[in-house]
C-alpha cells in the first residue's frame, strides 16, 4: 500500500509550482523571482537595508547580498550610506529598476490573479486562513536559534 502524501508535501509542491510560474512570468523582464521580490519591497520601502530586505524576502543575508550585487551591477538599484549610520547601506530603485519592477510586477500579478480566480471568494478566504494557521504553527514549532 502506498504511503499517503503528507500535508508538507502539498505545501512544498504548491510553493514550487507558484515559484516556477512566477519565474517564467518575470523572466522576460530580465529578473529572477528573488530579484523581483527585492525590487517589489524596495518600491514600497525605499532605503531598506540588506538585512531588512533579506527578512522581507525570506532569504538568508548572503543570498540577499548576491541578489543586491547583481541588481546593482545591472543599474537597477543604488546603495548609499545611511545619513546617521554610515555602516548601513540604504538601497533604492533607479529609474531602470522601477521600470523592470513594474514590468515584472504586471506579469506576476497575472499569475496571482489567475490563481485567485480558481477559487470562490469564500474559498480564497478559507485558504488564506488555513495557510495562516500553517504558518503560525510552523513558526512556533521551529526550534529557537542559539547564540
UniProtKB/TrEMBL annotation:
Q: Which Gene3D superfamilies match?
A: Winged helix-like DNA-binding domain superfamily/Winged helix DNA-binding domain (1.10.10.10)
SUPFAM superfamilies linked: Winged helix' DNA-binding domain (SSF46785)
Q: Which InterPro entries match?
A: HTH_MarR-typ, WH-like_DNA-bd_sf, WH_DNA-bd_sf
In its UniProt entry, what is this protein called? Answer: MarR family transcriptional regulator
Q: Which domain of life is it from?
A: Bacteria
Q: Where is the HTH marR-type domain?
A: 4-136
| Any one GO MF annotation of this record | DNA binding
- Key words of the record: DNA-binding, Transcription, Transcription regulation
Species: Actinomadura litoris
Amino acid at each position: 500500500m502506498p504511503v499517503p502524501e503528507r500535508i508538507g508535501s502539498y505545501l512544498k509542491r504548491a510553493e514550487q509550482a507558484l515559484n516556477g510560474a512566477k519565474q517564467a512570468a518575470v523572466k522576460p523582464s530580465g529578473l529572477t523571482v528573488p530579484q523581483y521580490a527585492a525590487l517589489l519591497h524596495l518600491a514600497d520601502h525605499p532605503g531598506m537595508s540588506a538585512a531588512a530586505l533579506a527578512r522581507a524576502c525570506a532569504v538568508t543575508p548572503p543570498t540577499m547580498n548576491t541578489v543586491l550585487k547583481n541588481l546593482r551591477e545591472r543599474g537597477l538599484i543604488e546603495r548609499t550610506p545611511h545619513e546617521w549610520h554610515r555602516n548601513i547601506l540604504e538601497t533604492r530603485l533607479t529609474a531602470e529598476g522601477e521600470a523592470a519592477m513594474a514590468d515584472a510586477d504586471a506579469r506576476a500579478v497575472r499569475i496571482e490573479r489567475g490563481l485567485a480566480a480558481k477559487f470562490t471568494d469564500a474559498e480564497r478566504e478559507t485558504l488564506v486562513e488555513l495557510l495562516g494557521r500553517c504558518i503560525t504553527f510552523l513558526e512556533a514549532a521551529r526550534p529557537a536559534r542559539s547564540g
